Amino acid sequence: MRVLPGMIGLLVFLAAPSALRSASAGPGPRLEWEWHAPQTEIQDLAFSNQGSELAASVNYLWPDGVDAESYPQAFLAALSERAQREPRFADPKVMILSKAGVVDTLPGWGWSPAFSPDDAKVAFSSQVQPATGKRILAATLAGNELALYDRSSHAVEKLVSPLPDEHVGRSVFTEDGKGLFYEIGAAVNGEWQGAIGVGWVALPGAKEAVLVEPKKVLGYWVVVDGLSAMAGGVFADLWVPAHKGPEDYLADRYDEHFVKIGADGRQTELMAASRSIEERETLLASAGPAGGFSVAKNGQLDRYDPAGQLQGSQKMHERESLVAQSYRAGWLAFLVGERFEQGGQAIVFRSLDGKMKYKLRVPGDFDEMVPSGDGKKIAMVDTRDVDKNGEHSQYDCVSIFDID
What we know:
The protein has 2 domains: 1-38 and 329-372 and 374-404, no CATH class; 42-328, Neuraminidase (6 Propeller). Residues 1-26 have low confidence and may be disordered. 4% of the residues lie in helices and 51% in strands. It is mainly beta. The chain has helices at residues 73-85, 138-141, and strands spanning 30-36, 40-47, 54-60, 93-98, 101-105, 110-115, 121-126, 145-150, 156-160, 167-173, 179-189, 192-202, 208-212, 216-217, 220-221, 223-230, 233-243, 253-261, 267-276, 284-287, 293-297, 300-304, 310-315, 322-326, 331-335, 344-350, 356-362, 365-371, 377-388, 391-402. It is globular, with a radius of gyration of 21 Å.
């Protein structure tokens, strides 16, 4: 198949092939549907609250680095020529997908969509600068704004504009839909971006506040990880530099503070530790029934009540990388092999007894996985290669599994 630069316009829904069935015996996960388009990259997945739709950032896959070496020079030259004529043809578009295909494409360009509690609106990070042909570094994202899309009127409202050299990253709605928490991003590790603060804006967009002020300690940014929703606020994992090391951009040691942040800016510390740079690992938190929550990190799963009191712990042993969890549905998903390198297989374990529940397999290399809000579905993205008649191309495919 020869992939032409204009083929991003051909967005084709393909029915799920029978080859993508679970390898586990007996009852197992059911592949509900999948979607892909030629030479297309899919990322930043977000389920609707009803679970029937999936929002994602979709862009023409511009070959970069080692990947570019497998493409003909004529193909790469054609891309560059088109970028001169159409500076934004490969910029990311936020799309809403379902079993029927593409439900909606939001105006403009952007990343990191998030559904409102009633699924009537979608918040996203609006890509202000042209990104076509550029690496997604902090400089490319600088100036990105928090925007809100009304699915009924198709209008886009700008909510937050960042300071110069900063950008708005992921956002999380409050449970009542009357506010949005969002990441404040900037260059953290050289040219690479990361979250350095947390903001909040009331809806409709009238009041705005910075809840975690970006700051440097020992000359390094305090880094924010794991922003996710919980009852009455959001989780955030704050990494405070504690020891200056040989790196110019990252400290040698960090004090970790896992906190709950309310819309009033009040922080409640739930966990604290001191870790070396090698031990830095993104924490996965999941809201559970009646305001409880669970935290998976460093080989251990901890369960808390709504007041933040530890209710129980379980060792996760030396398994592969933890990529998703759902406290409400009681499961943990681990990637088998290295992310982006060793193929697309994940194993789902029951979180209470550690027994295997399902295996999930996709043909390509694993990129991303997210659970639905009720934990009954998983969406996985994998990258697939096509080599035909001496021509090479790639595309991402998103697969939705029912694991209830």
